[in-house]
Amino acid sequence: MSAPLIAPLIEAAGLSVAYRGEDGAPPLQALRAVSIAAEAGEVVGIVGESGCGKSTLAAALIGLLPGNAVVTAGTVRFRGTDFLALPEAGRRGLRGRHIAMAFQDPMTAFSPVLTIGTQLTDFQHHLAGQGRAARRARAGAMLARVGIADAARVLDHYPHELSGGMRQRAAIAAALLMTPEVLIADEPTTALDVTMEAQIIHLLRELRRDYHGAIIVVTHHLGVVGELCDRVHVLYAGEVVETALVDDLYHRPAHPYTRALIACDPAGLTGVTRPLPTIPGRVPELAPPPPGCAFAPRCTLATARCHIEAPPWVAVGPGQGARCHEARPRGCDPGGTDPKGADANGAIR
Amino acid sequence: MLSYAIRRVLLAFLILFVVMLAMYGMVFLVPGDPASVALGPRATPELKALLTARMGLDQPVAVQIWNFFRNAAAGDLGFDVWSRRPVLEVILEVFPRTLVLGLVALGWAVGLGVALGCLAVVWRGRPVDRLLGVLSVGMIAVPSFVVALYSLVIFSVWLGWLPAIGAGERGDFWGQARAVVLPAFAVGIGWVGYTARLVRAAMLEVMGASHIRTARAFGLPERIVVTKYALRVAIIPAIAIIAVGLGGILSSAVFVETVFSRPGIGTLITGAVQKRNYPVVMGTVLFMTAFYLLVVTLADLLIARLDPRVRDVLRG
Lengths: 349, 316
Description:
The complex is a heterodimer. Chain A has helices at residues 54-61, 88-94, 106-109, 116-122, 132-145, 151-154, 164-176, 194-210, 222-228, 246-251, 256-264, 304-308; strands at residues 10-19, 28-38, 43-47, 69-78, 81-82, 99-102, 182-186, 214-219, 231-236, 239-245, 313-317, 320-323. Chain A is of the alpha/beta class. Chain A has 2 domains: 10-98 and 180-345, 3-Layer(aba) Sandwich (Rossmann fold); 111-177, no CATH class. An 8-stranded mixed beta sheet of chain A has the order 6-7-8-3-9-10-12-11, with helices on both faces. By secondary structure, chain B is mainly alpha-helical. Chain B folds into 2 domains: 2-73, no CATH class; 87-315, MetI-like fold, CATH 1.10.3720.10. In chain B, helix 1 (2-29) packs antiparallel against helix 12 (278-306) and helix 11 (265-274) packs antiparallel against helix 12 (278-306). The longest helix of chain B is centred in the last third of the chain and has 38 residues, at 222-259. The radius of gyration of chain B is 24 Å and the shape is globular. The chains are: A alpha/beta, B mainly alpha. The A-B interface holds A 62, 64, 91-97, 100-101, 103, 105, 108-114, 119, 122-123, 125-126, 158, 160-161, 174 and B 209-211, 213-221, 224, 228-229, 232-233, 236, 306-309, 312.
């Protein structure tokens, strides 16, 4: 797993996904030419507000797009194999064992009528060779590892008998059961209160140390990204608008949307403001997407060109790029990277 | 769970009490004097008074109601007007036949209905699903006595495969089994369609739930996702409705037993109504109400057994 690979461990390359409209309505472009990649040992964040396509991207990465979604362009590759082109049985073989997901809203992520132990045992069906007792013991050990005290007893509990934090821990334990190469954490802290959120972030940071796979954290919460991630992709209206190392993102954001997001993070406020800052306007309609920059209607820097002409990908620095007419390469970087290149968001280690 | 079971059973008794009260009220409110009806127009006033006294109808209403409840609680539902046998004995003699018919009908109907409902979900939107949708409406729409008549004509009269009438001789298992096939088919076929639609709707809802996505995200085989994760949740509302529907099964048994001249509760009650045998009518209705309440109560307990959330809400 530590051997360097030519292809990234998991990547979406130029991925476009549309949802078929109901009754002849135009299709909704949920993702447009999204390219992201994650390597072993790396934590990649995907940030954006509701409706920007985060969940669609997470679903596509594990091959679980809903029935009305169509991949119109691009691929998802796991170890170089086109995941979406595999037959369903092949994808099923990868799911859980090689790519696992810790779900958003652990309230509904577990079956309400089966005990945690039964479900965690079932989730290890790839180890059919081992008996149920052995798999159940593994489940108990994993629960203990994610910090659930009294794990043996929790196995006999139903999901609704656990607290939100315990359920989220159990969801993470479930995802780690098969030590997958790729762990996708979909909104791991959204359903939790602040104390629980801090605990889960602490847990994920701890897991980072002993876990050698790639972690992809999907969230709308910039704080989570700052705490956990190495690299961040900012998603807006189905497009990656900025890619940066986490420090650059916070200190030198290149895209106006990223700057607005950071300005809205309540954790970054210094004085007392009321009401909290927001980005005026809302996410544009994606059926069909606007011709120019999707963020232009809400952007304080927007010029006439922004409304008509789709902005190019601008490499602003090592490992950082933004999709903006106003973005400029930073400092003395002579623009060694391809200015249009989807490769600009390649792996930096 | 135990306290819930106790409360649920007490509730069933309360409902039974109200039903009995209502039943008594209805009989009491019907105009006419039971003694003159029983004795005919030529009865002397002395004879009427004697019968009224023997039936206890000269007592105050409260006393009459008390006697009714006391007798019913002791299992005394009065006497058959014609045969002079206790009503309960008459009912218990034929009830097993109806119970067997109902259980066989419900068994095959629910089994097939659940399977078809699941198939419709697995092949959602495909021709099989559409065909099942049309078929199930057809099954629900055709009354059971029509199915009974046609199946009797086809399988008994034309093909001669199965007996047309009766319930088979006592002790002759195969004879009884052959005799129950057509009636159970007629009673159950509507329920196949009904259960299939019910399960399909419940399954479609459950299949969209997050925990099904979780099960798929762990690569569980679709067979296990459907049977263990989805059906286990979808069957819960179906159980409640099927239990309530047992009342419908018993009422279609009334028609079907008549068509097949099959002894049972249905033939008993139609005969009793035709002969104005009121004690038997009242006793049968009361007995079936009690039986129905028993089934619904058992279904509620089963739901609580299957759904830990219900169990906990009730515990709290």
